[in-house]
Amino acid sequence: MRDATRHGEQSPPAGITPEELQLAARNHGMPLEALRHDVTPVGLHYLLIHYDIPTVDASTWRLAVDGLVRTPLSLSLEDLRARPTIRVPVTFECAGNGRARLSPRPVSQPWLSEAVGTAEWTGTPLAPLLRDAGLADDAVDLVFTGLDRGVEGGIEQDYERSLAVTDAARDGVLLAYGLNGQPLPPQHGFPLRLVVPGWYGMTNVKWLTRITAVAAPFQGYQQATSYRLRQEADEAGTPLTLMEPRALMIPPGVPDFLTRRRFVVAGRHTLTGRAWSGRGPILRVEVSVDGGASWSDTRVEDGPSPWAWSRWSFGWDASAVGEFDLCCRATDAAGRVQPDEPTWNLGGYANNAIQRVQVTVRTA
User: Fold this and answer.
1) What is the C-alpha separation between 284 and 333, in angstroms, rounded?
2) Residue 269 and residue 319: Cα distance in Å, rounded?
3) Domains of the chain (ranges, CATH numbers)
4) Cis omega before residue 104 (within 30°)?
């Protein structure tokens, strides 16, 4: 356990604060039993809303593309729909997923492990639109501005994030106006949002209204202050970008209402789940039924797209009654493996430590 007082920080209260409860009521995770779906139903997909959901009139809304471009653009939703269309499943994960499992707990949205989902996004690729606008040679970053506005870090601001020009022009990056075959719902960014496959969720700016090419790295709050890995408040920190590898299992059996402990009948069971990474395909998923003392390989299937999670499965011989600590861990194509324990950081980001599911095996 990390001692916050030794690092000049105020220790968080022992219980969940009213402010965190407000956040938890506004936002929601994906129930882990929904891992059975290749594409997450809209109402089960995780949701994080920084400020308020803006009301947008699609008939008057426009997307501006400006700054260091030769041909500034102002596009309606109809203009965007008339451009080339792609439809692709992409897995999103909140950078703060797992924050509530850190000790001491960073005070913010108290995610456990459910801040994830895979949606089928419909939209138009960003790179051709940037070519039409004609980026200037000295353009370094693209700043994406949403219509949601609030106060964070004592600063009133629009929600804004940036991408380097080279990252924004990569395959798969799109301006999405559809979700699972339907128009974007208000809470997911209607009428338009950015989708950047492989990157943590904060990158995918919702209620998108402007793309601005600038000549220097963007220093807005969400880029230079928030979403950075740091141990101390005065550190510059390392920016969060690509998702770390993670595997999650569907908790087997039936749950206790309050504790969510699982109960299964003795016999053979198939454990299943999903695994993903922003750093390449999942090469391996392992399962342990003894708390990580020993590991066994699972069967891993290809995902529905290069940017979506993979399904894994494992046959568990649960013939002995008793208490079991089930775990799973993923290894991606970059050779990164989920750790047994998380690394603490000030914002509670990128905690991809292995999942643990407490299971009681009993006779029928």
Assistant:
1) 9
2) 10
3) 4-239 (3.90.420.10), 246-362 (2.60.40.650)
4) yes
CB 276 within 8 A of CB 301: no
The 10s digit of each residue's pLDDT in 215-233 is 999 999 999 999 999 999 9
Q: What's the maximum distance between 2 C-alpha atoms anywhere in the chain? A: 72
For 112: left if phi > 0, alpha if psi spans -120 to 50, otherwise beta; the answer is: alpha
> How far is the first Cα of the chain from the last one, in angstroms, to the nearest whole number?
40
Nearest to 133 by CA among 217, 212, 216: 212
The residue type at 182:
Q
Contact indicator for 160, 223 with CB cutoff of 8 Å: yes
List, for residues 243-280, the tens digit of each pLDDT value: 999 999 999 999 999 999 999 999 999 999 999 999 99
3 state SS of 362:
strand
Nearest to 360 by CA among 260, 287, 271: 260
Q: Are strands 310-318 and 267-276 parallel, antiparallel or unpaired?
A: antiparallel
Residue found by looking up tokens 């209260």 in the block: 13
Distance CA(147)–CA(119), nearest Å, equals 22
The confidence score (pLDDT) of residue 364 equals 79
CA–CA distance, 148 with 160 (Å, rounded to integer): 9
254 Rama class: left (phi>0) / alpha (psi -120 to 50) / beta: beta
CA distance 9 to 21: 22
Proportion of the chain in helix, strand, coil states, percent, rounded to 5: 15, 40, 50
Q: Edge-to-edge strand order for the sheet containing 208-214?
A: 73-75, 63-67, 208-214, 141-152, 155-164
Q: What Å distances lie between residue 320 and 135, 290, 325, 342, 357, CA to CA?
A: 64, 12, 13, 31, 17
Structure tokens at 40: 């997450």
Question: Distance from CA of residue 247 to its chain's centroid?
Answer: 13
